[in-house]
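Give me C-alpha cells for this 192-residue protein.
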Amino acid sequence: MSKPSQRKREKQRKREAKRQRRLTEPVSLAYTGNKYKTNELIPFHFATETAIYECFVITRRRLTDHHVRAAVEWLIAELRRGPLPEWDAGNTLTLTAGGEADLIVANIRRSWCMYAEENPRPGRDNVIGVLRTILGSIECWGSIGPESRGYLKFIEGLCNKLGVRVTLAPAPPPEMEVLPELPLPERIPFSP
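Here you go.
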C-alpha cells in the first residue's frame, strides 16, 4: 500500500482543522428567512417586539442588544425543553442590578398573555421561530460592541412609524412613597 501524497495529506489536514473549528464554534440560533413573517404570525411578532421596546423605555434606554439576545435565547431554550409555566397576571415588572434579561422575559410573557386574550396563541414551534427571527434581526441591526443598541433603535423607529408610543408614567410628587416596582408602559393596540 502506498503512502498518500503530500498534497492529499495537506488536504486531509485542512479538512480536519475545518471540522474541529466547526465543532468548537457556537451555533447561532438566529433565523433570517421569511417563514415566520406570515400574516398570521406578524401580530404575535409585533407584540413580542413591542414588549422588548417597552423594556427599552422602562430602563431609560440603558438596555443593550446583548440583554435582549440573552433573554430571547433563554426563552428559546426553555420552550425547547417544554411548555413555560402559566404566567400570573398579578406579576409585576421589576428591574434588579444584572436582571435586565429577566425584565425582558417577564414583559414578553406579559405581552403574550395580553395577546392570547384576543388572539389564538401560535404553536410552540411558531413561537420559537418568531424568537429566532428576532435573533436574526438583532444580528442584522446590532453590533458586537458591548453597548450595542442598533436593534433596539431599529425597533423604536419601527414602532414609532407604526404609531406606537411608549412613555413612562410621570414621577410621583416627592411627598408620596415610591415603590420599588417599575411602572407598566401604556400600550396602544395593534391592528393590521
